[in-house]
Backbone:
């Protein structure tokens, strides 16, 4: 079945429940996406699993999406091992009381996913027997995948990049600070020094060019004085060579 046919089949199974079918992106990997009300959540998964034409018997994954003031979208992906097609089922729960029925009785593999979604987003799954912490320590407060959650590391240490929604007010762009005494760009060379004292990170007065002694002209250098040997030393290399030459 094509994604469009899968979506129409799910809507027909849920009648008279109001459901909306669409097709996700992904081109060749597109999936039928069906939005259902929270009250029909568990019944929808059961119907999609038991229908002969759909036969979505494989539970793939379940998670949530934070839609801010609109609430949370709980999303599940099911797959048919017989017909080789899948479907995305989605329901939206309010932000003030994000609660939806557990589907562990329909797909036991959803137990781990519901625990994670409860821990990360704060969505409650009624009928789940154990929504204990799964990945975070028991003393952890808050739900880190909610968009209003502020990372503790960014509160303790200002973020060097541009401030984003939800980050601490201490964040901001990083200002380049020059070491003391290093002039700013454009202040090198014989540029008048700025008036007033120079503070850390500000431009330093330009240094006057250092005068170097003029080099002597070619051929005007004084001859080098030959180094004489110390007392008790043997003859110099030149003398020794001369003696050897005389002996020869």
Residues:
């Amino acid at each position: 079945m094509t994604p469009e046919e899968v979506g129409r089949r799910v809507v027909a199974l849920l009648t008279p429940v109001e459901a909306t079918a669409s097709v996700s992106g992904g081109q060749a990997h597109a999936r039928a996406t069906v939005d259902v009300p929270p009250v029909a959540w568990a019944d929808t998964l059961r119907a999609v699993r038991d229908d002969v034409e759909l036969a979505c018997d494989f539970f793939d994954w379940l998670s949530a999406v934070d839609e801010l003031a609109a609430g949370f979208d709980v999303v599940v992906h099911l797959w048919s091992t017989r017909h080789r097609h899948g479907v995305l089922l989605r329901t939206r729960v309010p932000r003030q009381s994000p609660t939806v029925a557990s589907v562990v009785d329909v797909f036991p593999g959803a137990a781990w996913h519901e625990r994670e979604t409860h821990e990360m987003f704060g969505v409650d799954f009624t009928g789940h027997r154990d929504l204990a912490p799964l990945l975070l320590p028991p003393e952890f407060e808050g739900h880190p995948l909610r968009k209003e959650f502020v990372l503790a590391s960014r509160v303790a240490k200002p973020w060097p990049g541009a401030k984003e929604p939800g980050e601490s007010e201490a964040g901001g762009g990083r200002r380049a600070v020059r070491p003391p005494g290093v002039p700013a760009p454009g202040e090198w060379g014989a540029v008048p020094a700025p008036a007033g004292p120079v503070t850390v990170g500000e431009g330093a007065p330009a240094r006057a060019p250092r005068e170097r002694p003029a080099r002597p002209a070619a051929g005007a250098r004084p001859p080098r004085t030959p180094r004489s040997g110390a007392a008790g030393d043997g003859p110099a290399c030149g003398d020794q060579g001369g003696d050897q030459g005389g002996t020869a």
Remarks:
- The CA atoms of residues 111 and 129 lie 9 Å apart.
